[in-house]
Amino acid sequence: MKKYTKIFAILTAMVLLLSVALTGCGSSKTNESKSSDNSSNNTSQTQQKKEPVELTVWSHLTDPEIAKVQEIANKWAQETGNKVKVLADQSDFQAFSTAAQSGKGPDIMFGLPHDNLGTFQKAGLLAEVPDGVINKSDYVPMSIDAVSYDGKMYAIPLSMETYGLFYNTSKVQTPPATLDDLIKVGQQVGFQYDINNFYYSFAFMAAYGGYVFKNNGGALDPNDIGLNNDGAKKGLSLIRDFVKTYKFMTADIKGDIAKGNFQNGKIGLYISGPWDVDGFKKANVPFKVAPLPTVDGKPMPSFAGVQAAFVSANSKHQQEAWDLLKYLAQNTALPLFETGNRIPVLNSVLNNDEVKNNDILNAFAEQAKNAIPMPNIPAMTAVWTPAGNALQLVTSGKATPDKAADDMVNQIKQGIATQQ
């Protein structure tokens, strides 16, 4: 009995030793596995960490504005470890296209007028704005329309501009609120603008229902032109009356003449944009700006331009480029307002006290809320010359508004046909 007991004890001890050995071995394998997993994760993280890149930004803004953009871009570069060069650029579409396709173009174009976007998009040079880069509700709705093409966003709006009614405060105490008021006060103190420039005169055609291209859910239809409908013709008749009936200005007046007459105090009312503000201030002109007068109780729509920024479809650093552009869009609005009188499109900046307390630029911002973005599709290039010619024929009395409008639209259609 003692013999079997001794043998059982020896066997029990051997089992315990073997169990410990196996446990130790299993633990070692588990630790090795965890170590291997950690090593794999560290390698993956190392592989995911990208090397610093250098981004190039071309800008159509002024030199002082470009310097400010470079300053802000440097902060992003410091935070991310990347590099950024912001360069002045005045090249045309063809030069950009050639540079982009040869790999010598910029990663970002910053401050390009939005009505160029259609040509760039058609050529495949624009990267679509990724989800999450901006929140559309943070922006003036018109500015989002301006950078969209067939319902998709291809750029980020930076600032906006439109025109309003300048009035000499020594001649006019209260700006005309209605079209009738404009005519009445204009007969007393004088009223002029670059009347044969379609950019400005479009407002009087749009006030009665004229339009360039029909907007179908965010897509402009170049086959539906509204510049010879009843409203557009009524607007042309009014423009003719400014010259022939009310004799506010001559048929051959140019913008610089109208500007000079307002600056010299010869007239009390003048239509133009923010670009004239600094000149009038330096000349000590007593003036203010108001939105355009209403017509039949409705705001008068003006043409609006939007300075936009986009990422080149040919950029090799798409992720970094969009990250930089998002940063610039969020941080340049107020500096560009201060440096270049650029009217912000971000609602938060529009509501900034510094902007709201600037009566002159705030008046343009109010007008911009009722403005229509200049069409950004390539077909718009076929509009300017026929429209300008039609205005000259009407103001000079060489054609009736009806005939001038019909001929204009026919010429536009012919011009669009040659583009296809």
Automatic annotation (TrEMBL):
Which compartments does it reside in?
Answer: Cell membrane
Q: Which Gene3D superfamilies match?
A: Periplasmic binding protein-like II
Q: Which InterPro entries match?
A: Maltose/Cyclodextrin-bd (IPR006060), SBP (IPR006059)
Look up and give the organism this protein is from. Thermoanaerobacterium aotearoense SCUT27
User: Membrane: is it a keyword of this entry?
Assistant: yes
- Keywords in UniProt for this one? Cell membrane, Lipoprotein, Membrane, Signal, Sugar transport, Transport
Major site of localization recorded for this protein = membrane
A matching Pfam family: SBP_bac_8
Biased composition regions of type Low complexity, renumbered to the chain: 36-47
Which GO terms of the cellular component aspect does the record hold? ATP-binding cassette (ABC) transporter complex, substrate-binding subunit-containing
What start and end residues bound the annotated signal peptide? 1-24
- Name the membrane topology term: Lipid-anchor
GO MF assignments: carbohydrate transmembrane transporter activity; maltose binding
This chain belongs to the protein called Maltodextrin-binding protein
Listed under GO biological process in this entry are: maltodextrin transmembrane transport; maltose transport
Give the start-end ranges of region Disordered: 28-52
Similarity remark: Belongs to the bacterial solute-binding protein 1 family.
Q: Where are the transmembrane segments?
A: none
